[in-house]
Design goal:
The complex is a heterodimer of chains A (about 325) and B (about 280).
Chain A: H1 18-21, H2 23-64, E1 74-75, E2 80-81, H3 84-115, H4 118-132, H5 136-163, H6 182-206, H7 210-218, H8 223-234, H9 236-252, H10 255-258, H11 278-285, H12 292-328
Antiparallel strand pairs in A: 1-2
Helix pairs in contact in A: 2-12, 3-6, 3-9, 4-6, 5-6, 6-9, 7-8, 9-12, 11-12
Chain B: H1 3-44, H2 47-51, H3 64-95, H4 100-114, H5 117-132, H6 137-161, H7 165-173, H8 178-189, H9 191-206, H10 233-241, H11 246-281
Helix pairs in contact in B: 1-11, 3-6, 3-9, 4-6, 5-6, 6-9, 7-8, 9-11, 10-11
Classes of the chains: A mainly alpha (about 325), B mainly alpha (about 280).
Chain lengths: ~325, ~280
């Protein structure tokens, strides 16, 4: 149903009343243009960010070319920079975070949509939404003072003792227990994206028509079977989209990670070792970078991060839109 | 009972248990974090927190300059962001719902909503701090405004779309031009929702740290020059937390509690407002 008002007074024969005939129409043109300007400003902002960051990062790309993305060096003394360790840390922490948050988020959504008694749903929903709003510095701060010591004293030694010696996965849990490191950062990230993921999945699962679900229950399906064979398949694209939106958030998260990543520009197979992410490097080094190439390299990292998250968020958004369109048709 | 049937029952039980367990684990984990923040925060909290400025190394102090600086920057950011966000939302909802341009703006706006906040900081650094050769509260406010604009634009559009078209048509039939319809009919009808959006945007920027690290920087004095390094709560917490002094850590806990409290209560207020608005309509 499209009920659009024909706003073209004066053009299409509609005559505005006297009081507006002179002033009203010109004001309308001003307001329309001003609001158009503000809407276009969003496009301008994205474009300006890309252009300005690219311009500021240009010295780095001129010096190192594409090898900026393939070399594993980060040495402000010799003025040689490569993004591999930062990109590796970003991807690994985000991936691990989603790996941990996804089952729990899915479980919460399953619980809220199919299992929870109605009086439970609303308070739980509100709690999740409130938690999604807590600033990331609070999580990072908690990670530094509570989670990292806990990891150092008990969880990491346990992992090293029990998994460190295993074939295949042993390398992931090798080395001393630092407390801070890739695994700790991943856990904090997982806790941070959990509310977003749970809320998103609940919303998506709630869009499934009750008719479909009731039909399945009527032929004797269990709750899990309804979830697996009706709810998830009919929302597949949106679920994928939501996962990508969560990934986009995790990739760009700064403060939660900076506290507990360890800030070491190096590649190590072990998840217990300190590492760095793009955003953590920028947060740590930007104010201390004294030579122009160092600053420019950090800006190049920022541009890379912006580009990666842009693509991932765009894909996620596209997938979500696909389902909405499908519903509308 | 057949084996097959048994298996289905047990699979269902297994996953039901898994879902209930993950809901319990997830929620309690988050509540544990909140509890810790509040218990440590309250014990670290004192009268000094609101009356003294951030301490020199090893010394005692409070957070008053950081709190006031944060408020000033967030307020300025909102002053910049509100007109842009509201007007952008008005364009998408009232003037042009279906064109290509509108869908592009909508799409990019949604991406900006979850774009890394540190990128906004770098952008503000490049356009404000570098040309002016100084860190400033203005640069910090601009970075925060970039984060607030998409939030305001999105909620404004979402709210204006809820206004029934019959109302607009009735006003148009009386001869009102669009700007008049928007100002007196649309905004009036959903004003609670729009104020909710503004509060949410404020809650969002109140705790942002990354964009302020290299725009507003920080300082530890009772001196809040918006055209120089401006003290602010998030960066202060960051610096206090990474310091080696136990009394600074305690102050950081108090700061983390204040931010959490502000953001949580803003979110709860918006929640209550929306609930009331929904009840009124029903």
């Amino acid at each position: 149903m499209s009920l659009s008002v024909d706003h073209r007074f004066g053009e299409g024969g509609l005559v505005p009343p006297l009081s507006f005939r002179k002033t009203g129409l010109s004001v309308d043109a001003y307001v329309k243009n001003a609001s158009l300007f503000c809407a276009v400003l969003i496009v301008g902002l994205v474009a300006a960010m890309l252009v300005v960051l690219a311009y500021a990062a240009a010295p780095t790309f001129q010096t190192f070319g594409f090898s900026f993305f393939t070399t594993n060096v980060w040495n402000p003394v010799t003025d040689h920079y490569g993004a591999v360790s930062a990109i590796y840390g970003t991807v690994v922490t985000s991936f691990l975070a989603l790996l941990m948050a996804l089952p729990v988020g899915f479980g919460i959504a399953f619980f809220l949509v199919e299992l929870a008694p109605p009086s439970f749903v609303r308070p739980l929903r509100i709690a999740i939404e409130l938690l999604a709003g807590i600033p990331s510095i609070v999580f990072g701060f908690w990670g530094l003072f509570v989670l990292a010591p806990l990891f150092q004293s008990s969880i990491q030694p346990f992992l090293i003792d029990h998994l460190g010696g295993m074939p295949l996965v042993g390398g992931l849990f090798a080395g001393p227990a630092f407390g801070v490191g890739l695994l700790t950062a991943s856990c904090i990230l997982a806790i941070m994206v959990l509310p977003f993921l749970a809320a998103f999945l609940t919303d998506v699962f709630n869009t499934v028509s009750p008719l479909l679900k009731e039909s399945a229950y009527a032929i004797g399906a269990t709750r899990w079977e309804v979830m697996r064979s009706i709810v998830v398949p009919s929302t597949g694209a949106s679920v994928m989209g939501g996962i990508m939106l969560a990934l986009g958030r995790a990739l760009g998260e700064t403060m939660a990670v900076t506290f507990v990543i360890g800030n070491a520009h190096r590649l190590s197979a072990s998840l217990l070792a300190p590492g760095t992410t793009i955003s953590a490097s920028i947060a740590n080094e930007f104010n201390e970078a004294t030579n122009a190439l160092h600053t420019s390299s950090l800006l190049a990292l920022g541009l890379t991060l912006f580009a990666i998250t842009f693509v991932i968020l765009a894909c996620g958004k596209g997938l979500v839109l696909m389902l909405e369109r499908g519903k509308g048709a | 009972m057949s084996f097959h049937y048994q298996r289905r029952i047990w699979t269902n039980r297994l996953f039901t248990f898994f879902a209930a367990a993950s809901a319990t684990i997830g929620i309690s984990l988050l509540l544990i974090i909140l509890f810790r923040i509040f218990s440590e925060g309250i014990s670290a909290f004192s009268f000094d927190t609101f009356t003294r400025t951030t301490p020199s190394p090893g010394g005692e102090g409070g957070l008053i300059n950081a709190i006031v600086g944060s408020l000033m920057m967030s307020a300025l950011a909102m002053i910049i962001a509100i007109p842009v966000g509201l007007l952008g939302g008005v364009y998408l909802a009232e003037y042009d719902r279906k064109s290509k341009l509108s869908s592009v703006v909508r799409f990019l706006n949604d991406i900006l909503l979850s774009a890394p906040s540190i990128c906004f900081g770098m952008f503000a650094y490049e356009i404000m701090v570098r040309p002016m050769h100084r860190f400033s509260g203005y640069a910090g406010a601009v970075a925060l405004a970039f984060i607030a604009i998409p939030v305001i634009l999105r909620t404004t559009e979402d709210m204006l779309i809820l206004v029934p078209n019959q109302l607009r048509e009735a006003a148009a039939a009386l001869g009102a031009p669009i700007w008049h319809i928007v100002a007196t009919i649309s905004f009036q009808t959903v004003r609670h929702g729009i104020i909710t959006g503004l509060l949410l945007a404020f809650a969002r920027i109140a705790g942002e740290t990354a964009p302020l690290l290299f725009t507003a920087l920080n300082n530890q004095f009772w001196n809040i020059p918006m055209d120089g390094p401006t003290p602010n709560l998030p960066v202060t917490i960051y610096q206090l937390a990474l310091s080696p002094y136990p009394n600074w850590h305690r102050l950081a806990w108090a700061g983390a509690m204040i931010i959490t409290l502000v953001v949580l209560s803003l979110n709860i207020v918006t929640r209550l407002m929306t609930d009331r608005a929904i009840k009124k309509r029903a």
